[in-house]
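User: I'm new to structure prediction. If I give you an amino acid sequence, what do you actually give back? Let's try with this one:
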Amino acid sequence: MKKRKDYHINIFYSDEDEGYIADIPDLQHCSAFGATPDEALAEVLIVKKAWMTSARASKKPVPKPHYRPVIYQVAQA
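Assistant: Good question. You get back a string of structure tokens that encode the predicted 3D arrangement of the chain. For your 77 residues, that looks like this:
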């Protein structure tokens, strides 16, 4: 069975925002805020769906998932 790649999601705490930010590096400007990491993840998944819908409706290209942090690239080598 072929393994399906999905978009990498970063989740980090922002002192400036006093909460968690989740972003998808492959999808420009696709990010969300949450009071907890789980909340930020749930929100960015909603934003991801809206991002995809908007891009397709506008006939803009949807990039394939390719971003992987160096730590994951080294682990797979």
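You can read the tokens as a compact description of the fold. Here is one thing that stands out. The helical segments are 37-57, 70-76.
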